[in-house]
Amino acid sequence: MIKAHHIMYKHKEFHILDGIDVSLEYGEFLAIVGPNGAGKSSLLSILANEVKQGKQKILFKNKQISDWDVRELSKHKSKFSQHNSNEIPLQVKDVVMMGRYPYFDSQPKKEDLGAMNKMMYETDIYHLKERDYNTLSGGEKQRVHLSRVMAQLDNEIAHKLVFLDEPLNNLDVKHQYKALEIIKKFTQKANSAIVVLHDLNLAAQFADKILLMESGKVSAYGTPEEVFTAENISNAYNFPCTICQHPVNANPMIIFG
Amino acid sequence: MSALLLVFLAIGALYIGVYDFNGASPFAVLKQFLQGDPNLALSDKYVIWDVRAARIIMAILVGSMLAVSGTGLQGLFKNPLATGDLIGLTSGATLLAAIAIVLGGHFREYLPEAVQFSLVGISAFIGALLAMMLVYRISTSSGKTNVVMMLLSGVAITAIGFSITGFLIYISKDEQLRDLTFWNMGSLAAATWTKNIVLTVVLIISYIVLLPKGKALNAMMLGEKDAQHLGINVEKLKKQIVIITALMVGTCVAFSGTIGFVGLIVPYILRLLFKSNYAFILPLSAVFGSILLLVADTFSRSIVAPSELPIGILTALMGGPIFIAILIKFKKSL
Fold first, then answer.
1. Number of independent structural domains in chain B
2. What pLDDT sits at residue B115?
3. Min Cα–Cα distance to chain B from A175, Å
4. Distance, first Cα to last Cα, chain B
5. For chain A, first and last CA: distance in Å?
6. How would DSSP label each residue in A42-105?
7. Domain enclosing residue B289, as ranges
8. CATH number of the CATH domain containing B30
């Protein structure tokens, strides 16, 4: 799906990312975790072709990602950004419809309206569709953008990829699970997702692979069982923790303190 | 529907004026003219076609382009205060047009004929383009526009333009002086069919590029990176808007002087109805800009008939309060 070799990124003389390799298979859900300032967002940004600086070697579907046609690429991958615009003087449905912009010229087609409505249902914002985006709460805005990003990939193309940078910010428990279930369902159809998460227990429950980062380097990579050991976590976060088994789903459960 | 309204108003404007067609209705006279009726008096012919119709068409073309350039700039700067006159494009265009008028005589003979003819127009375009690039450089960094910087750089460019134009007026000859005054006041009185043809060509080129960009301007509200994820070539879009708006503002200034506030009033009214959805307000501002300027021009030449009021007075009368209304609304975020 996507392969990146030896990613370097620096701002002035400070290395934000220092030689990172990433490789993702079809249908894989990769969670990137790590303490603040570890370089998670920068890595996601570079993988998603946002940074033009330097020559990063990133192969998306066996083709250098910067060589893709921008419009064609937008049907294969989408990205949910961490800092979404607060001020968009439009209605909610207009914002979600932006996700369908790659597919129509002047008037949205039937399948565009369909994809828009379907995602608004799934993210539980359908009742807000006529509301002004600017009047929504932080969590509702997050769900609008989640809908937009997922509606963008509602097409016939096989093996799509979604990048999400902290999609759970400001969401309540129910919507956190809902959001992760939407992403999980997406990856079960042979699509892939790379998600920056802060909640390690949710990452353990939903992700197939975990990438633990620490000051611009990969400090552990593998399945949740492999990565989430007490030693790895307390080293990376510099905070004591214990690991036990989740009583319901038998995933590793991290308890801090 | 709004296009119908425009046609209706244009016919209405044909009826308003000082000249009397001996009791015949102007529309009938126009019809006679178009059919090439040999019985038509020469003065009737001149007034209906070369004066009234030419001026009406010019109002439609200039109004439309001024409004669309305003809407396009507001999409680029993500702010409803960005218009050609407030950020200094008009001043830049006026300045270079004035230089071309006063100094152009000296090196005119060295230029090819086609360039000579359109010297003022081309200078106005270059002036608008330079002003645009300067303002964009000063006020925007990494895709975010600082509104205060944007408006203040407009003030600075206007100040520079004002002082140099003032100096040019001081040193200019009598005939040039009349041209310069016309530029500073703004008027559609000098409409001719040659000018209208040039305006139409510029309008068609600009609209082919700009009018389908409504979706892209909407996506820009998400931020440049997210717009790119939606398949929009952001760098190319920005360059297109910069060049096309400069072209439209420059051409309008070259032919009708500085007519302010059209690019502010029209998008403001449309936003009240359609929010900021550029997919609607960009094409609609093309029609409503025409309506606004046509109505304003018809008033300006009929209120104090047989004399006429500078049209800028009327547009500023509407634009000023709207400017203040937008400022109050954005008081917190500025």
1. 1
2. 66
3. 23
4. 37
5. 38
6. HHHHHHTT---SS--EEEETTEEGGGS-HHHHHHHEEEE-SS--S---SBHHHHHHGGGGGG-S
7. 2-329
8. 1.10.3470.10
In whole angstroms, what is the distance from residue A182 CA to residue A121 CA? 11
Residue A153 has pLDDT above 70, yes or no: yes
pTM confidence score: 0.89
Distance CA A47, CA A32 (A): 12
B221 contacts on A by Cβ (under 8 Å) = 85, 87-90
The tokens describing B201, both together, are: 């060509």
Among B35-39, B149-153, B243-247, B257-261, top mean pLDDT goes to: B243-247
Q: What is the average pLDDT score of chain A?
A: 90
- Of A27-41, B93-107, B209-223, the one with minimum mean pLDDT is B93-107
Q: Which residue of A has its CA nearest to B221?
A: A88
Task: For B170-197, write each residue's pLDDT tens digit.
Answer: 887 777 777 677 677 788 888 888 889 9
In a domain, B23, yes or no: yes
**Cα–Cα distance, A57 to A50 (Å, whole number):** 13
Radius of gyration from C-alpha coordinates of chain B: 20
What is the rounded CA–CA span in Å between residue B280 and residue A133? 18
Asked if residue B334 belongs to a domain, the reply is no
Contact A50 B228 (CB under 8 A): yes
Are A34 and A13 contacting, i.e. CB atoms less than 8 angstroms apart? no
Beta carbons of B218 and A105 less than 8 Å apart: no
For residue B81, the 8-state DSSP code is T
Residue A49 has pLDDT above 70, yes or no: yes
User: What sign results for the dihedral spanned by CA atoms A175, A180, A183, A188?
Assistant: negative
pLDDT tier at B113, thresholds 50, 70, 90 = low
Per-residue H/E/C for A105-143: CCCCCHHHHHHHHHHHHHCCCHHHCCCEHHHCCHHHHHH
pLDDT cut 70: percent of chain B above it: 93
List the 185-214 stretch of B: residues with Cβ below 8 A of A.
212
Domains, chain A, in order of start with CATH, read 2-256 (3.40.50.300)
At CA B243, angle to CA B239 and CA B245, rounded to 5?
115
Q: Is the peptide bond before B306 cis (omega within 30 degrees of 0)?
A: yes
Residue B117 pLDDT grade (very low, low, confident, very high; cuts 50, 70, 90):
low
Looking at residue B57, its amino acid is: I
Query: What's the pLDDT score for residue B172?
Result: 77
With CB atoms and an 8 Å threshold, state whether B219 touches A78.
no
Residues in chain A within 8 Å Cβ distance of B235: none
For residue B279, the chain A residue with the least C-alpha distance is: A106
Looking at mean pLDDT, say which of A15-24, A82-91, B272-281 comes out highest: B272-281
**CB spacing of A75 vs B231 below 8 angstroms:** yes
ipTM of the complex: 0.89
